[in-house]
Amino acid sequence: QKGLKFPPSPRxxxxxxxxxxxxxxxxxxxxxxxxIVFKVxxxxxxxxxxxxxxxxxIIKKNREKRTVEVSTSLMHNPDGEPIGxxxxxxxxxxxxxxxxxxxxxxx
Length: 107
Fold this sequence. Notes:
By secondary structure, the chain is an alpha+beta fold. The chain contains 4 helices and 3 strands; from the N terminus they run αααβββα. The chain has a 3-stranded antiparallel beta sheet with strand order 1-2-3, with helices on both faces. The protein is globular and about 55 Å long. The model is unreliable at 1-7 (pLDDT under 50).
């Protein structure tokens, strides 16, 4: 199965760290979000340019959907060759829900 392998935050997915290491991202997101994430990480790799604030939806172990924002950049070895990705993520589900509620109340 194609897809990126990167360990998401155990706190965000509610899986333990050992369960997440090497897990394919398609195991915790739907096809639409997996395709978005693949394209962005592929661009980061090919263009060698960091990506800030990619927003996508993940599915937690208990099947709850959460929205996360991720900033990612390419990691290099001492010879400058790419060896992986460095990513920082945060759960923005509550903020997104509040924004949607505010939009609904303004209508």
